[in-house]
Amino acid sequence: MRVALFITCYNDTLFPSTGKAVVKVLERLGHTVEFPAGQTCCGQMHWNTGYQVEALPLLPRFLSQFEHAEAVVVPSSSCVAMMREHYPLMAERIASEGGDASLPHRVAELLPRVWEFSEFLSKKLGLTDVGAYYPHRVTYHASCHGLRSLGLGDGPTSLLKAVRGLDLVEISNLEQCCGFGGTFAVKNADVSSAMLAEKSRAVLNTGAEECTACDNSCLMHIQGALHRQRTGVNTRHIAEILAHTEEDELDAVQAEVKL
Amino acid sequence: MSRVPLDPRTAPTFQQAAKTLLGDAQLRKNVRHATDVIQAKRRKLVEEKQDWQQLRESARQIRAHSLQHLDVYLEEFERNFTRAGGVVHWARDAREAQSIVVGLVKQLGANEVIKIKSMTTEEIHLNNALEESGIRAYETDLAELIIQLGEDQPSHIVVPALHKNRAQIREIFRKAMDLPDLGDKPADLADAARRFLREKFLRVKTAVSGANFLIAETGGICIVESEGNGRMCLTLPETLISVVGIEKVIPRWSDLEALVQLLPRSATGERMNPYSSFWSGIHPGDGPQTMHVVLLDNGRTDVLADAEGRQTLQCIRCGACQNACPVYRQTGGHAYGSVYAGPIGAILTPQLMHMDHSQTLPYASSLCGACYEVCPVKINIPEVLIHLRNKVVEQNGWYAPESLAMKAVAFVFRSERRFRAAQRLGRIAESPLVKREKSTFPILDQEEATKSGWIGWLPGLLGGWTDTRDLQAMPKETFRDWWEKRGKA
Predict the structure, then answer these.
(1) Cα distance between residue B96 and residue B407, in whole Å
(2) Of A122, A143, A204, B294, which residue is most buried, by most CB within 10 angstroms?
């Protein structure tokens, strides 16, 4: 399949390793990956913070970049949730305010072809084993948008369970928000930190070496606490785990020896 | 027994109030414990209902339909309630409602009333208005009694005293009821409250209540509760005055079928609440012989006029969103500066205040969606929060510092060239703040591992992040740079 990658502004800038991993997994599975170069941001930060007028132009931009793709894969559950929940509203608003009247129709056409990365693997391709090897103890954080907006269910954990060598341990407060919430983490830093403290405690209680998720925004938040507290526990996007193979492991061990 | 009521007009911002409350370890423990218990009970009872989602959908439709034809159903209620011997009063705002109730009590020559728990009378600060007119109000709901005697404020719409534990309640009772030897078992506390209240029930001739639903078809009023103290207020006094928000009306008696299945399960995790009272009008020789209903607007018609905000009025006040909300669970209700706390308060209060106050409330949520998931009438609270945030932004104007920054970022996102320039600029700007350190992570990407850097301090608005969290520095190469290089290789 020809898959167009929407990397998201956040992953592009802060977590390029996630994008590389997505490319690696998809190519390993025999798909062709395309990267429409004009892409920037889905508009979630602006829309969710109340800057709707500022978010609106990002919708036609996204459409023009991706509407000819066979499938669009996005390694971020919150950006996909933004599109599914709010793009139809945004398109209606633009159309009703005298803008491009074709937008609602074009959005409705494209959205069924937009997939969160783990969802693409498990729901669209029907896979559980993607040939990964990752010999570590890992816990999974169900980000709110993946859990409630996309209804990812046990798709991501099924993928993880099929990874050879991986020991998956369940976190106690799986359905609880980590407290990130975009600008919430800064606007309500105290409450956000209190929520984060609960989540990071639960991560530590699992005894896992790493915490994974389908969303780097939650992971950046959780990692912020785990690093500040010098816990030695790491976070990593699910794509990076699914990309890892036995050969990579060998390379990694050799690299570590050289360091 | 006077106390300062929660008032959005004078309350501190959510952030300020939350900061103080987060320091209260006992309160946080109490809130956490209470919400955990209720949520566990709720989950069990929801799981046993096979048709839960259909029930939610019916209830949503009933409530949405009622709001769409509110004028019709309110007038139908008025006709039927009047025909049954009751008197209907219309109050545009809190002040009007206060003066109607105070006027009625004074007309009766009374100087005290008993009350059954009513968040609507809390909303309009009725107790303070009564007190200013020399009328003493006794709360008879156990939790409301605790709040009143402790000169405290309600923290939850269903369980107003959930931020207090048993030891604290005992202290409040011991002091206020002058009971130096009071024990600390639940039975001791219940007994003390019972003796304290029984005397009021038998003596006071006027009662003030709220209502869960008004039934247009029968001119009926419905109140559901757990303790039976409400029923005492509804049956013993000679006069009953109910203060009810206009949105509480439902068309038919049969609409209760769905609603009374959803409400107790969502609110307290019970299949049925222990006491359900329904009455319409006067019945000679039985119950109150004079009945008044004050139909309160107080901002509700303005909420109704807003197509996106309207669903807020579907609320049946079960408090499930409060119990599920991770933000509420950290702070309890007082941080919201209003009688309506938690997610529902975060959308209801600003709208009732015509967006003039409580600007910080729509932002008191991480938009995690837990509130929407549990709401028995399917109010899409996250969507309304975003809608209200948009109103706040419009109110504050383009020249607010945050607005300028957001506009600048949006300008960047509208062009790939500008976006790439911003990425480069960001790396340069952050570099003085980055501390390089050897990665402790298993190495998957060698270049990143050796250059791993962290930011422990950020200036200005972003400092909220680094007060408690580190931030990983930007890698040297963006994904799109890597992609381009890869294509050329």
Answers:
(1) 43
(2) A143
